[in-house]
Amino acid sequence: MPILVRDSNPRHAAQQSQIRFADGIIISESLQKVLEEALQMNEPFKIHSKLLDIYVETGKQQELVALVDLMLRKYKRETSVYGLCGAACFKLGLVDKARQVMQKAISVLEKKEHVAVLVQFALLERNAGARERAEALFEQVLAVYPARVDVASAYVDMLVKGGDTEHVRQVMERMTSQKLPARKMKVLFKKWIEVEEKIGDQDQVDRIRQRAMEYIEKAKF
What we know:
Protein name: Suppressor of forked domain-containing protein
Main location: nucleus
Structural class: mainly alpha
Order of helices and strands: EHEEHHHHHHHHHHH
InterPro entries: HAT, Rrp5, Suf, TPR-like_helical_dom_sf
Strand content: under 5%
Subcellular location: Nucleus
GO molecular function: RNA binding
Radius of gyration: 23 Å
């Protein structure tokens, strides 16, 4: 754990009030205050999370990997640590390390937390340019949990953002063709209509709206 030390160099002090870590990283006064408060309140997780940001900003890959390993040991039951560490690794191009973080999460966390982790890493993969891998992760989740409309919604949002119109419709077609509870079907159709209003024409919107009305009538809401 780096030690906080005041930078006593007058030239530096004249330029900006700063603080230097023992490994040579200089950070701003605003971040200094956050770290000092965390130390006073005994919040090591908060400090380590800030250090992740610092290593990303300064491009220190080796230090980041060491910190990630430390955090995964120290906070292995903290669900949020995996997303933080994975995102940091992706930002520095440490793709293999990021994927190791995801696998670690799956092996350590309870099964009920796996879906959230997989969705988070799918989005990280997409942001890193790994489109096919991101889609594969979403498909993996939906294959096991086909009724997770929240996952389908996140999947569709990702596809819309990427401009993959046909794939959006394939996913929505598949989801609305399932025998799901009426409440979930209503959510899916509402989502589809909202999406088509963004990516489709009026005919397409009307077609989905009509299909939704037919389902509602048949289900007798």
